[in-house]
């Protein structure tokens, strides 16, 4: 007991703070509870449906769950990419982190039936009308994860690459990435409200992160290295879960709710969604060095373990 009191004394003296003030505060403080630690009341007050349809609650909660999982993915990526101490992460550290990320990505995909089968078709098609022009497209967490994982060049569709100027900087490259196709008419340059609002809020920060992470993201750190089998396997799995499997589950869900009698309905974000959302159109691949040319060619049309 005396040891810990001595440590506390030393700590607060070093901070030029009176240790007894801290100890008195500790004496008065209430014991911690689960509900305060988890911020339970705040958490359960964050769902604000726009309509009275009960299934809108499921829609909001599931998006929030997705955001928390995406937050866990970013949390792991930051630890191997933003190595503040200047110490590069080892291949062993990276393998462990990518395996953790894959567990979160698998939850994202495995749980998607909550959306695809878990809401009433008619309720969804009523409450979604109150949500335009908002769209999951505006979930910036996906875009930050992309920048942590790979170079912008890997987010530009092969058909679009010849249009990118040779000396393009990050801001220019961001005008050509695949996600522009969801809301930009490349001929007229006109943008949908969904894309316009998204870029007004996030473009500056995406440019800043893109510049900071260029040549430094996970792909850049690994592309010229001899990779152990376990890491190669983990990177393939991450690419597959994030850039093929989840997008296909998501597209299938959009088809479930937005196709009526074989006719495509307009989405809240007004994209040409059926074409745009398919992985074989986007050809988004974070780690091209772990895939064969044939696999890259057939992107979005095969399954891996
Ligand atoms: C019933 C459920 C859902 C439907 C019908 C749906 C539909 C769509 C559609 C049609 C788009 C294309 C953009 C647009 O025109 O609005 C889109 C994009 C997107 N949605 Fe969803 N979505 C659903 C659930 C979710 C969930 C739970 C998430 C998780 C956060 C999500 C994240 C995204 C993302 C990240 C994009 C952009 C995809 C990309 O750029 O590749 N969506 N969604």
Describe the structure.
- The protein is mostly helical and 305 residues long.
- The protein has one domain: Up-down Bundle (Methane Monooxygenase Hydroxylase, Chain G, domain 1), CATH 1.20.58.
- It has 16 helices and two strands.
- It has helices at residues 2-14, 19-28, 34-37, 40-43, 55-81, 91-110, 113-116, 121-127, 140-149, 170-173, 193-213, 218-222, 229-258, 273-276, 279-282, 293-297, and strands spanning 259-260, 263-264.
- The protein has a two-stranded antiparallel sheet.
- Strand 1 (259-260) and strand 2 (263-264) form a beta hairpin.
- The protein binds protoporphyrin IX containing FE (HEM).
- Protoporphyrin IX containing FE binds at residues 62-63, 66, 115, 135-137, 139, 142, 179, 182, 247, 250, 253-254, 257-258, 267-271, 273, 277, 282.
């Amino acid at each position: 007991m005396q040891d810990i009191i001595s440590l506390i004394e030393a700590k607060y003296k070093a901070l030029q703070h009176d240790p007894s003030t801290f100890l008195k505060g500790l004496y008065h403080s209430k014991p911690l509870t689960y509900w305060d630690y988890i911020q339970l009341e705040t958490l359960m007050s964050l769902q604000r449906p726009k309509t009275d349809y009960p299934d809108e609650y499921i829609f909001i909660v599931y998006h929030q769950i997705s955001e928390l999982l995406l937050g866990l993915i970013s949390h792991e990526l930051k630890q191997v990419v933003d190595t503040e101490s200047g110490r590069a992460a080892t291949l062993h550290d990276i393998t462990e982190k990518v395996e953790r990320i894959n567990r979160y990505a698998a939850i994202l995909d495995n749980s998607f039936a909550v959306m695809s089968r878990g809401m009433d078709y008619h309720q969804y098609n009523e409450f979604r009308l109150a949500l335009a022009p908002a769209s999951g497209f505006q979930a910036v967490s996906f875009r930050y994860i992309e920048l942590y994982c790979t170079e912008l060049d890997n987010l530009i569709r092969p058909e679009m690459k010849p249009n990118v100027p040779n000396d393009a900087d990050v801001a220019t490259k961001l005008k050509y990435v695949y996600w522009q196709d969801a809301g930009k008419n490349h001929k007229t340059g006109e943008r949908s409200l969904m894309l316009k609002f998204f870029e007004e809020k996030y473009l500056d920060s995406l440019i800043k992160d893109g510049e900071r992470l260029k040549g430094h993201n996970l792909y850049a750190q690994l592309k010229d290295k001899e990779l152990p089998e376990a890491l190669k396997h983990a990177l393939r799995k991450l690419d597959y879960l994030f850039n093929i499997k989840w997008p296909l589950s998501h597209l299938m869900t959009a088809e479930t709710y937005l196709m009526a009698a074989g006719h495509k309905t307009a989405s809240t974000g007004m994209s040409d969604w059926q074409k745009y959302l398919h992985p074989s159109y986007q050809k988004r691949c974070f780690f091209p060095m772990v895939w064969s040319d044939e696999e890259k060619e057939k992107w979005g049309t095969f399954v891996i373990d």
